[in-house]
Amino acid sequence: MTINNFNVPGVILDRNPEFVELYATAWKLAADHIQDLPGLPVVHHMDEACDPSRLWLWDTCFMVHFCKYAPKDFPGIESLDNFYLPLLDGVKSSCLIHHPDNPPLMAWTEYEYWRFTGDGSRLHRNLVEKKYLQRHYEYMENLRTGDKFSCSYVQANFHKTERGYMWSGIASGMDNTPRGEDMHCNILWLDALAQMALSALYIAKMAAAIGETSIEEEYTAKYQEQVKLLNESYFDERDGCYYDLWIANYEQARILTPASFWPLLAEAASQERAERQIAVLRDPELLGGEIPIATVARNSPFFDPDGRYWRGSIWLPTTYMVMRALVKYGKLDLAAELAEQTVSHMESTYRNFSPSTIWECYSPTKPEPALTGRGDGFVRLDFCGWSALGPISMLIENILGFHDVDAMERVVKYHCRPIGRHGITDLCFGDVRCDIILENDGNIHVKTNAPFDLELDGKRIPCPAGTSIVPGMR
């Protein structure tokens, strides 16, 4: 499929052609945010759709998760070097980094990109030659509140303590979140601890893949220590949820937001605890409902029906994170249901609200963009940007069901659901370029230039080069 002269996978969903239209719109808007800015370490990069003179770390990490579907045209992974080089090597940059203590998601992002594309060119550099991932991990560990950055006008808010990490709403990315009841310095942030665990987990995984045993062992130990702390201190048995901690007494601060799912993405929860946490996604008074995964529980006194940024809005990065966590715990049908509700809400807003575009975040109650935190207008438009995660990544991975692609093992994991004719064309991973389409005859028609395995709900089926038919849903 060609969009703006770029080659991207084609998607088929006969039941919802409007989703396919929104998918194409997301790629077109994302293409508009490919920028060439002199003075950056990597001039050709993805702009976050906020301010071209500044860079946002967690936006960029999340954008890689849709850019990976067209890595030759969309410079997602390369854009991370605009953070590594100024932060860790002191390279001058024409852009300020907006909050260098943003969520530490690079290791997760680098791993997912490598595993999907098969491009291992960055692994040795990031772990052995330059040690960017370990150095960034230690950089975060050693930050203290008030530290100054040479590449930013702001001061650090990240601060390690014996029981976890102090942070702030803006630095965490959840700007005006009510967590800590507006006194953000009063809590230890569960997402900070879980994201550091996530980083350690994926540093260890990548180190294992290239035979760096000492790095693997070091970061596995760090990961295990953080998981232990998460489970001993941050899980509330009454609600069955992970929460922040009050610094005053180390009790759980029981304000429910999607941040409670970071421990699941980091694989820190037992299956029993994950089931309890996931239950909040089915409760319309909490994070469920027709428009799911609002950024604060609907029964919270802090919930605003107009969204007001992180006071209830639907944000695609946190929704996507929850989808990936659900997949890790085998909740594929629930992930598909929630993804479909989310993309449907985005499409309804696109169709019914003017201008017709994709927004920074969405109202949790009606087909409109959310209001800003000040309530003085709507949020940013044409935001692709990480909002492309819904119409691109969640459509492919959750709604169509191609939830895991491994170029190393040459396997596509496919959760086939009864949603009519659907599929994907020109899916590229490693040296494979393939079409996978569930046709109206109930069979899966595969066309590929190179052999791979299609894992159909746990059963691996070899697909040789050429065309083949795999029995699907009857």
Report what the structure shows.
The chain has 474 residues and is an alpha+beta fold. The protein has one domain (7-400): Glycosyltransferase (Alpha/alpha barrel). The protein contains 15 helices and 22 strands. The chain has helices spanning 17-32, 57-67, 76-79, 81-89, 106-117, 123-129, 132-142, 169-172, 190-209, 213-233, 262-265, 271-278, 316-328, 332-352, 390-399; strands at residues 2-3, 6-7, 10-13, 34-36, 44-46, 54-55, 96-97, 159-161, 164-166, 187-188, 235-236, 241-242, 244-246, 252-253, 404-406, 411-414, 422-429, 432-438, 443-448, 452-456, 459-463, 466-471. The strands form 8 sheets. A 5-stranded antiparallel β-sheet has the order 3-17-18-19-22. Strands 15-16-20-21 form a 4-stranded mixed β-sheet. α2 runs parallel beside α5 and α14 (332-352) packs antiparallel against α15 (390-399). The model has no long low-confidence stretch (mean pLDDT 96).
Strand runs, count:
22
Shape: globular
How many domains, as an integer? Answer: 1
Radius of gyration: 21 Å
Number of helices: 15
Summarize the structure.
A hairpin with a 2-residue loop joins strand 17 and strand 18 (432-438).
What descriptors fit this protein?
474 residues, alpha+beta, Glycosyltransferase, 5-stranded antiparallel β-sheet, 22 strands
